[in-house]
Amino acid sequence: MPLRLDIKKKLSTRSDRVKSVDIHPTEPWILASLYDGNVYIWNYETQNMVKSFEVSPNQPVRTAKFVARKQWIVTGSDDTFIRVYNYNTMEKIKSIEAHGDYIRCIVVHPTQPYILSSSDDMSIKLWDWERGWNCVQIFEGHSHYVMSIALNPKDTNVFATASLDKSIKVWGLNSPNPHFTLEGHERGVNSVEYFSGGEKPYLVSGADDKLVKVWDYQSKTCVQTLEGHSNNVSVVCFHPELPLILSGSEDGTIKLWHSSTYRLEKTLNYGMGHVWSLNFLRGSNFIGLGYDDGTVVLKIGKNKPPVSMDQGGKVIYAKHNEIRISNLKTTLESDVQDGEKLSLQSKDLGNCEVFPQKLQHDSKGRFVSVCGDGEYIIYTALAWRNKSFGNALEFVWAEDSGSYAVRESSSRVKVFKNFKETHSFKPSFSAEGIFGGSLLAVRSNSFVCFYDWETTDIIRKIEVTPKNIFWSENGEYFAIATESSTFILRYNKETVQKFIESGQPIEEEGIEDAFEVVHEIEERVNSACWVGDCFIYINRNSKLNYCVGTEVVTISHLEKHMYLLGYLPQSGRLYLSDKNMNIVSYTLHISVINFQTSVLRGDMDNAEKLLPKIPQDQLNSIAHFLESQGLKEKALEISTDLDHKFELAIQLENLVVAHEIAVKSDSEPKFKHLGDLALNRGDIDLAETCYIKAEDLAGLLLLYSSSGNVAGMQRLEQMASEKGQTNISFICNLVTPNNLQKCLASLCDAGDFAEAAFMARTYVPSMVPEMVAKWKKALEATSVKAAEAISNPIDYPNLFPDYDNAIRAEKYFEALRSHLKSASEYNSQTQTADSNPIDQVKQVPEQQYNKVVSSLQSLTLNNNVSFSSKKSVQNDIDLLSTLNFSGQNSPPLVDVTDPIVPAVVSPVKSSPPSQQPIPSSPQPQRNSPPTATTTTTNNIQSPPKSFTADEDEDIPLDGGEDNTDDFSFTSTPTTSTTVNTKANLLIDDDEEEDDDTKLVDI
């Protein structure tokens, strides 16, 4: 039977004639040297050119090789030079005039700092780059061009050469003379290569006589001659992994020959002209080809190694036709780290009569099947004795070890039990593959059908094309891995059994309720296994995951492509292997899997019993799993990660636990988060504690201002000042009693003298002269005229009507703020939204006014006065209240229609400019004293609800009727939209024709 060859083209590029190719050992690169003197590096995964080198224009580069350990490429061309380049920087490292004629071949020694070169000058030279690229040996003996060199992989001090003198010579690095010569070709020999396997001392050669010859270099005889090419054979090699000999010819074909039977397995022709070069990457399935018209990279065979592990930890694998065994139990007592390569001893079991492409234990580990070369053989696992054999393209075991099935062809499937054939059936479609397990699955190009092992009756047809099918040990679940995703299904065995017992005929689509879709994993699975009801897999991105129910958990990110061997409960570890049989392991506790399975099934009692068996370091993963299942209370109880535990407590609104965790971790973000939650839940004390710990001044401002906590605001002001948060400090001073002077100081410290002057005029009239003086001084640095135009109430009292009454009102409200009533009395107070403090003060007799202010001040200084004294003062306050005063936070102390008051405070909607009253302002003469300009209105404005002094901070002002209103504080004064307000700012305008002094709006 022919070999089942899986051949995929990974790269095909068009270029000038390619004389040689080489594959990089670690990067997905192929190096191509061209007849036009260029060298290209292609990425065969992305199909893109990585680098290009112009080596010898119009002079063929006949050979080029990677030196990966030095990041070099070495080239040989017809100009007789060897050149060395760094393929990362593209810098030329060295240029050597190496031979007296065309350089045909270069080979890099795998361990020593050597390269070998051959030439049309009939010599071979050995170069040492650590000795300054000196030629340390010259090998002479051929009588014609030396076309090819090959190092012996078993002894790298030995190499062979092929020459157009019709001979093959074998040399040693330490001797200039050949050890022996092989002769047999009738014409010049173009290529020679060693067999890389360990069991055959063979060479293969190709020549201009159109023949391929296999040589035994120990007996120095020709073992086999392969005929089939119709033109000169340019290149030959042994496949590094498969039992294949590859030969390329000028007839444009690549022929694949079986290295044991020497049967021609396949002929490839890509229509790209003569084949000039062929190269392989040792330890892989990649083959590079150089043609007249470009470069091709092929992948022949699969990377997955022929290996199988039984439930006891015995690993059987094949190395070519040799079968070896290792026992993982020898590593159980050693301290193994996750991902660490295991040091295993192996022994020979024997040889296999066919080339193993797949090894597979039965469910009990008693037998091992080997499938390859179109045949199968069943061996006993321990003694490796042949138990049964036959023809098969594929072989699969049933769930019970006594049954198995083979696919003889695309039209015939046979079922065996106890090594005897029980059924043979021909599917109604082309059978492209079979899969074992609880049911026998047969795949077509577009669907898969599941059959009963005993009767071969169809159970269900599914419209997917699986790459593989994985069954759980109990046969309840299975996974269908497709090209793009994986489906987890449940097999309803009892439903199927009842349907069959009912005697109903099974339709072409099978039994509808046989399967139930549990979950879809949107990933391509390369290899997988089941542990209980847990599906463990490696995806195409080399990520090791497991899936329980619908929850996918990542175990590890693998550094390279690995394949799952299985799981050992004794060690609690998963075992993986790469294509070179390097085995590693990862921890997976069965107690964790069983716990998660119990939770998914709703069996919380069993889960509670399993919980004490779970290792401490796995509790956090269990907590995350419980959280994903909505069991947050249990997750909070189990989790040991403070961050995760805190998040769970927040989600559950468990303030006590969250506070304990925040105290333990002493984390400001945690206190901030908890403070917000506590405030939302109405726990003001906890919110305050958390905001203080988190130093969240904005949160404290909200808390204290909302609750009327004067002492808290005072503490907050001190904290804000220490931390340089002037906005919050300003707001604290603004809303707490008798701290307006500090607000003015803050504005002055920030250089906002204009804002300070306007604020003083509105709230602290007695401070206006000082603020105006500072404003003028600051303004003088930029505009002396503008500074001189600003009026001061001391210098121009005529421009500030009722200024004295404003100061009287200021004193009253200053005293009143120290004797505030409770917020609970708000509704019983006379509303003063339309009050005008200036008019009210005018109506109060001086004697009565002084008495009230003095009484309020005495109460402020002495809180232990008698009840009768307090009653007397209250009567005086009530008298003022009849004049529309209020015992609440003070409004601005001037009418907003006063021309000096900044018109930035009205919350009323703006009216169109055409509807605003236009004041009539007299035009004073130059150098005359400033004259007040007043807008008369019959309506008394309500106290301002906002003030402009900072950029984006929303703050309450100390004024207005309702101290619960919201206010804004920005840095630029704005013009009132409800009244026409002007400041007495007089500026000389030299450019005006009438040379008048103008009144400028603010």
TrEMBL record:
Membrane topology of the entry: Peripheral membrane protein
* Residue stretches making up the COPA/B TPR domain: 595-776
- Top-level taxon: Eukaryota
**Which terms are listed as keywords in the entry?**
Cytoplasm, Cytoplasmic vesicle, ER-Golgi transport, Golgi apparatus, Membrane, Protein transport, Repeat, Transport, WD repeat
Give the protein name, as stated in the record: Coatomer subunit beta'
Organism of origin is Polysphondylium violaceum
Instruction: Cite the residue spans of the region called Disordered.
Output: 905-1002
PROSITE patterns named among the record's database cross-references: WD_REPEATS_2, WD_REPEATS_REGION
Role: The coatomer is a cytosolic protein complex that binds to dilysine motifs and reversibly associates with Golgi non-clathrin-coated vesicles, which further mediate biosynthetic protein transport from the ER, via the Golgi up to the trans Golgi network. Coatomer complex is required for budding from Golgi membranes, and is essential for the retrograde Golgi-to-ER transport of dilysine-tagged proteins.
Pfam name, any one: B-prop_COPA_B_2nd
GO MF terms held by the record: structural molecule activity
Which compartment or compartments is the protein found in? Cytoplasmic vesicle, COPI-coated vesicle membrane; Golgi apparatus membrane
Biased composition, class Acidic residues, residue ranges: 949-965, 987-996
Please state every residue range assigned to the domain named COPA/B second beta-propeller: 320-578
Query: Which regions does the record annotate with the repeat WD?
Result: 11-52, 96-128, 139-181, 182-225, 226-267
One example of a Gene Ontology biological process annotation: intracellular protein transport
Q: Relate the assembly described in the record.
A: Oligomeric complex that consists of at least the alpha, beta, beta', gamma, delta, epsilon and zeta subunits.
Q: Which family is it part of? A: Belongs to the WD repeat COPB2 family.
Compositionally biased residues, Low complexity: 923-937, 966-981
Establish whether keyword Ribonucleoprotein is in the entry: no
* GO CC terms: COPI vesicle coat; Golgi membrane
